[in-house]
Amino acid sequence: MSKKSIYNKDILKTLADVGVYISNYITGEDLISKEWKSIPRTFNLKDKDKDSFFDFIHTDDRARVKNAIEAIYNGDTNKFHEIYRLEYSKGLYKWIDSFGKTATKTEDGKTEYFVGFDLDISDLKKTEQKLRISIEKEEK
């Protein structure tokens, strides 16, 4: 039986490869998934926890997502789940289903490590829209 620590770099890298990300809110260090790295985008991934990141969230979703992230950072809640639109190119958006949980907190109760998972649900949202249009046509 292996006695590798759960904090082994190989294990953490594998988590990042399958869409999991780990953020240290104190040091600003991030272990970012290949999914995030593969999205063509106009923003820098290093900005994902800074105000400029919020500029790339659709205006209809921005305040809600920002408030939820601030609640995590401040230690007001341990769980995060938001669905929002993220601009990856000028005027083009991907739908992101993002969820995660605080792993550790500082002595003053703020989030230290946060582990999350982002899923691109753009295809699902397109299918939902087609279904909605189809239902509306039938009701007429």
Produce the secondary structure layout:
Blueprint: H1 9-17, E1 20-24, E2 30-31, H2 34-38, H3 51-54, H4 59-74, E3 79-89, E4 92-105, E5 111-120, H5 122-139
Proportion of residues in helical segments? 25-40%
Going by CATH, the homologous superfamily would be PAS domain
Uncertain runs with pLDDT below 50, 5 residues or more?
A: none
Total strands = 5
User: What is the name of the CATH architecture?
Assistant: 2-Layer Sandwich
Largest sheet: 5 strands, antiparallel
Tell me the series of helices and strands, N- to C-terminal.
HEEHHHEEEH
Question: What would you say this structure looks like, in words?
Answer:
This protein is an alpha+beta fold and 140 residues long. It has a single domain, classed as 2-Layer Sandwich (Beta-Lactamase). Helix content is 37%, strand content 30%. It is built from 5 helices and 5 strands. Strands 2-1-5-4-3 form a 5-stranded antiparallel sheet, sandwiched between helices. The protein is globular. The termini are far apart. The relative contact order is 0.15. The mean pLDDT is 82.
